[in-house]
Amino acid sequence: ALKTGSEATQEAALNALFLLRQAWSACPAEVSRAQSIAAADAIPLLQYLIQSGPPRFHDKAEFLLQCLPGTLTVIIKRGNNIKQSVGNASVYCKLTLGNTEPRLTQTVSTGPSPEWNESFLWSFESPPKGQKLRISCKNKSKVGKKSFGKVTIQIDQVVKLGAVAGDYTLLPESKSGPRTLEIEFQWCNKTISE
């Protein structure tokens, strides 16, 4: 009903989800958890309504998105201009989100444009509001730089849009031009067991 129904049907379905969400606080914890997991199936549809639905739906859809459990997927695709003056670097990325254990990509030694195409997943009971993902690009090689820079990314937009992708510039900038990481972010209703 949220995606293919008429505007009136979409509004009724959105209102029903909204009322259900308001009732969770009166339910025992295990009941509200089960209901939130079931309601999480609506995440892609809520994201669709925020992007394509009538403006009057946006606030309710965004409020509901901020209450539902989901999974953040970060895909480190490749680096650009990750080079040093002497020899090939052995490059890896270190990802830190909030207080979670840092996660590392594989180490790659393929020249100035390393490719990882590695995915990292974090599950949340509700979206990580205000959290930042910190990614540092490092060199394991004994020769040359130890770090190629870092980037800090606010992930709130991913929850609202469902997917965000782009090139992110590592700081500090290099004299040989900007060093970038191509990264894709996804927020969905699939939860994982950690």
UniProtKB/TrEMBL annotation:
Signal peptide: none annotated. InterPro entries: C2_dom, C2_domain_sf, CSI1/2/3. One of its GO terms (biological process) is anisotropic cell growth. Residues 51-168 form the C2 domain. One of its GO terms (cellular component) is cellulose synthase complex. One of its GO terms (molecular function) is microtubule binding. CDD domains: C2 (cd00030). PANTHER family: PROTEIN CELLULOSE SYNTHASE INTERACTIVE 1 (PTHR46369:SF2). This is C2 domain-containing protein.
